[in-house]
Fold:
Amino acid sequence: MLTPLIRVFLKLKKRKSPTGLLSDLGLHFPLFLNKYRMNFIKKSKKQIGIYLLVYLVILVICGVFQFFVNCQAQYSICLFETDNLNTIVTTTSYVLTPLIAIIGFQSWREAENYKNAHKTVEAMLDSTRNIQKKWHLSREYGDHSLFQDYYIKDVTMIDIDQSAIESFFPKVFKKSYEIFEEFNELKHLAVKLSIYQKDNLRKLNHAIIVAEKELYTTSEEIWNFHNTLVSKAFNSPLSTLSDVEMNHLCQKFDRYCNQVMGHKGNDERINYSERIDDYIFNISTEIENIGKDL
Structure:
């Protein structure tokens, strides 16, 4: 009977709980990559230093050997030996060529990382704007909203039946599902960014976790709201939420209930649109800070 609704909601229920978001957001994986990258750079510099040191030691040994064997320890004999000078220059060029190639490659790689990091930051800001837009739109239902119907039921005496519930709530869960998809894209970009820059993204990841945890809570509340309406439609005594809690959620789920119809059942007078903007502001601020530090 509720197949369309259940199918949409099951997609949401398969999502990991907020406590399982740590691995998704890359709180450990980026740290591993950064440590690996730093160790690689230190190891490369160490190898280059050893490479040059060995070359200089060999050069000194060969020079000393030549000075005592071929030159009989006399400076005047070896001072202007053109062949020896050419040999030293040629050998030095062989040694320096790979070093220049390594330094050039590292400079190119740093430039590419810088460019890719900035592109990723821009993509993350776009994704954050999409989350904000869809989150606000999830609270817009036009002329037909069961949240509005329930909110003013004491005045209009509207009877919310089972068919109205079945036709309305799949749209509600679909909106939540689309916001989760945008969060997944944002987390994917956060992992990509961690590859291109040295600092970890702990503050950014925390801001994303807090916002997505609120979205998980909202999805659970919508499900409880739905179950309560079903119980009332069948005159069941097993209602999940009280009437005060239902009125409170109507304001949270529907902007019109929150900002136009008053504050019935909500003494705190919470502006949920501003709360959404606060979540997005925290995420955007962390992204912008990372972009400035690149």
Observations:
- The two ends are 54 Å apart (CA to CA).
- The mean pLDDT is 77.
- DSSP finds twelve helices and no strands in the chain.
